[in-house]
Amino acid sequence: MRFTKWIFLLAGIIFTSFAFSLKAQDSAIVKLPDTLRAVKYKKPVLTILLPLYLDSAFDASGQYRYGKQFPRFMLPGLEFYEGVQLAIDSLKKEGVVLDVNIVDTRSSQSLGNILAQSVVKNADLLLAHISFNELKPLAEFANDEKLPFINVNLPNDGGVTNNPYMVILNSTLQSHCEGIYNFLQRNYGKGPIVVFRKAGAQEDRLKAYFSDVEKATMGTALKLKYVTLPDGFTEAQLKIHLDSNRITMAVAGSLDEGFARHLAIHLATLNKTYPVQVMGMPTWDGIRDLDKKEYKDLEIFYSIPFNPVRTDALSEAIGRHFKDNLFSRPSDMVFRGYETMYRFGKLLQEQGPNISSSIGEKKHKVFTDFDIQPVLLDNQKQQLDYFENKKLYIIKKLNGAVQTVF
User: Fold this and answer.
1) Which residue in 5, 24, 61, 406 could disulfide with 119, CB within 3.0 to 4.6 Å?
2) Residue 232 Rama label (left phi>0; alpha psi -120 to 50; beta)
3) Main-chain dihedrals φ then ψ at residue 88, nearest 5 degrees
4) pLDDT the model gives residue 97
């Protein structure tokens, strides 16, 4: 039944995407009070670029290609789209008037041809769920067109510099290191902190980020002890760096998921006699089995840029919608689609073409307290690099229970 619902939704996207394209050609008039109806206003245009894979899913006759299967690679874009649609419904009820265009970045067209479409070039704001290879050309296009572009999902600058029109919502690794360091500084400044890592270029980059934060800190610097572990490290190799008389904070200085699991399992065992807590990297949010018995009683922390709390009335309503209509639970991508469409849709209606200067306004919160700040390429010259969401949430997982602690 869930599979059938997704297929109907895909078919619906084909129709609505076509309808949105027609709408984008129409310069409709915003409904205004009598005193203003003589003045014509063009609706603000918001274009959303998503990997929907419609050309892959259906053949020229409209037949679904995958039989009774539903490819997992289609889910992120589809779930984001569902969140966008729910937000559009909410905005309509509030009388928000926008021209919204959905563009499939996985259509048969090249990215260059996609960016040449009028619904992209004539937009007032771009929201994009993109891949790494698409980031730089899309950012360059936005800069050339002086068109604000919000990178919703990719936690990377993609080598983009000197671009005041790019906004990164999913905070970069460097920002996560800053947030983790600040959290440790506030809560573990007097205790032992051991950074367990493995050899590698990525791990060296993480260490460099922490070193940069340490040099710039206004408070007392943390005394981080770095320990490079061999492949297949043992509990004995961890134990010599722990203290049986007080809690040690162990930081996982690697993004590798295999390393993360191996470290956490060993620390959970050692925790019985050597009290320890572990600070993971943002990638730990993707490890779905941290509530298993192998991690019993180990307090696990990590950072994420989007609010994970789902106890508010709106989150519960979205959950009911998915349960009743798709026989499933909404993923984080659904909530991300909803809050970006709603928040920036409201802001676009208010600001219109001037939205670039107001993109960081802290208003129209849905789930996340976005803190969009300029990132400087050159601090002395105050040269702007791009904008980035600097708000991070530190969450704690313990025996399956999830709690926001910072």
Assistant:
1) 24
2) left
3) -60, -40
4) 93
